[in-house]
């Protein structure tokens, strides 16, 4: 079964994405903020990560940089999920090597597209 980690400081947003992923037969786990995500990722390797950008303290770009330092996470696809659709933000996302960006609110179709692009769904 495909596994995913959803990182978002808003519990409701993270839980909603997890629930939609479950409908797509993905075992989804939520991390409610960057610190929790970093602790989880030390010992856990999901097949894909869905990452919010705007979080207090440490933003999604910093989390992405940290995540890539783990050898077991080097090739795990990361999808940014954000309400910030400004051209500067989209440009920064492209420079990170992220798979793609989904503008909130995420839809089941956008999640399915991300999974397909990652090679995790038909």
Structural features, described:
The chain is of the alpha/beta class and 122 residues long. It has a single domain, classed as Rossmann fold (3-Layer(aba) Sandwich), CATH 3.40.50.2300. Helix content is 40%, strand content 20%. It has five helices and five strands. The protein has helices at residues 11-23, 34-41, 60-67, 87-96, 108-117, and strands at residues 2-7, 26-31, 48-51, 78-82, 100-103. Strands 2-1-3-4-5 form a five-stranded parallel beta sheet, sandwiched between helices. The longest helix has 13 residues, at 11-23. It is globular and about 30 Å long. The two termini are 13 Å apart. The mean pLDDT is 94.
In short:
With 122 residues, the chain is α/β, with parallel strands linked by helices. The protein has helices at residues 11-23, 34-41, 60-67, 87-96, 108-117, and strands at 2-7, 26-31, 48-51, 78-82, 100-103. The chain has a single domain (2-117), classed as 3-Layer(aba) Sandwich (Rossmann fold).
Key structural traits:
122 residues, 5-stranded parallel β-sheet, alpha/beta, Rossmann fold
Query: Which term fits the overall shape?
Result: globular
What's the total helix number? 5
Low-confidence stretches: none
Give the total of beta strands: 5
Give me the CATH architecture, please: 3-Layer(aba) Sandwich
Side by side, the strands of the main sheet go: 2-1-3-4-5
Distance between the termini: 13 Å
CATH topology: Rossmann fold
Largest sheet: 5 strands, parallel
Alpha-beta classification: alpha/beta
CATH superfamily: Response regulator
Number of domains: 1
Q: How large is the radius of gyration? A: 13 Å
Name of the top-level CATH class: Alpha Beta
Strand content: 15-25%
Determine the fraction of residues in helical runs and give it as a percent range.
Answer: 40-55%
H/E topology pattern: EHEHEHEHEH
| Average pLDDT level | 94
């Amino acid at each position: 079964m495909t596994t995913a980690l959803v990182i978002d400081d808003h519990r409701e947003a993270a839980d909603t994405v997890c629930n939609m992923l479950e409908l797509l037969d993905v075992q989804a786990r939520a991390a409610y903020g960057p610190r929790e995500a970093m602790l989880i990722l030390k010992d856990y390797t999901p097949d894909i990560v869905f990452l919010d950008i705007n979080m207090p303290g440490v933003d999604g770009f910093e989390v992405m940089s940290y995540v890539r330092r783990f050898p077991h996470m080097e090739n795990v696809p990361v999808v940014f999920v954000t309400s910030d659709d400004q051209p500067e933000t989209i440009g920064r996302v492209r420079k990170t090597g992220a798979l793609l960006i989904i503008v909130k609110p995420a839809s089941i179709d956008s999640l399915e597209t991300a999974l397909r692009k990652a090679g995790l769904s038909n």
